[in-house]
Amino acid sequence: MATTPTPSSFSGTDNENPQNFLREVERYIHLNRIADEATKVIIFGTFISAGSQADIWWNALTTAQMASWATVKAAFTTQWPAIVVAAKSTLDYQRELLVLRLKEDDVGEHITVAGVSTWSHLHYHGRLLKLVQDAGVANALVFIHQVREALPRVIRNLTSPAPTTWTVFLDEIKNADINVIQDKARRKKEKKRQRKHRT
What is the pTM of this model? Predict the structure, then answer.
């Protein structure tokens, strides 16, 4: 049987994420099927680092605050509120969309993403698709032209000059024949090498 991961001790410092700590304790309690309220409170206390600011807070809690797991969690989140995430705006995603690039030298090459081998243009396609969704521009055709113009010529030439929708454009990138891509990329790189030797 797998051992339940033990939560890291919490000190209450600025470089700790209190919500992650609380979730780790919740996971530990759940996986160990601990139902008794008093036991939950006791277990929580064992994960507070001795002599820390969190320990000072813990020892100062009232009986009412330590009455149940729910009241302990409430006191904890009052002392250490959740960190507010600065969510990206639609404009931020649109900027990312317009600066996203598929490197010329990567065209037709295998790359490894999260331990998985894939083609560079397919990885680019996945990132572009996600950004189109996040940027909320699925119906904004004006961005397609700008994105298409920034593509390496090998890939750009395998797409329609004026795609009618993002779906059409993205499918053209995704479904491009890898043999054609590799052949064109190889020729382009060879020409580049020849020009370099002449200079």
Answer: 0.65
